[in-house]
Design goal:
4 helices, alpha+beta, 26% strand, two-stranded parallel sheet
Length: 171
């Protein structure tokens, strides 16, 4: 139960051949990240990048750089038949409900992603986060984007509620 930054070499040397953990210090920049993913894409059915902002190093052209990285990752995923899950953080000062526009560099995510899932934490009347949240799918090539799945944050885990709790909306 450690944050990724708190992992030690002993924590990440466990290798059953199914998972490989790279931390920020293992990757120099976005081109190094892409090289690693190209090399490893045939070895793993899922690659998770948490979070994309760590690897976009240009401060002047951050959105263009992120867009270029996403296009390359999409091509790698298609060619290698590997899924790549890219985590992006939202901008600060977001209203209660996160939308695609709240993602930094959202235009490239809208254009180049197959599916986009947003996790929305619910706040109480004091604007403090509660343990309740929901997953919203604003973009999907395969599923309805007018569904919301409730989730509950619990100590050390996340509980996704069953299909009976999914609701649909019309806006």
């Amino acid at each position: 139960n450690k944050l990724i930054q708190e992992l030690t070499n002993d924590d990440i040397t466990f290798d059953d051949g199914l998972i490989k953990v790279l931390i920020q210090e293992d990757v120099r920049d976005s081109s190094h990240l892409i090289d690693i993913i190209k090399q490893e894409s045939s070895n793993f059915p899922l690659i998770v990048i948490d979070h994309i902002g760590y690897f976009v190093t240009s401060s002047q052209y951050v959105y263009q750089d992120q867009s270029n990285i996403l296009k390359i990752l999409k091509r790698i995923a298609n060619e290698s038949k590997t899924s790549i899950l890219i985590i992006a953080h939202v901008r600060k000062d977001v209203d209660d409900r996160v939308t695609m526009d709240d993602i930094s560099g959202s235009a490239s995510f809208q254009q180049d992603s197959t599916d986009v899932l947003l996790i929305n934490r619910i706040r109480d009347e004091k604007k403090e986060y509660t343990l309740d949240a929901f997953i919203h799918v604003p973009k999907s090539k395969f599923y309805s984007t007018k569904s919301v799945c409730p989730i509950i944050f619990q100590k050390d885990k996340l509980k996704i509620l069953g299909n009976e709790h999914v609701y649909h909306y019309d806006h």
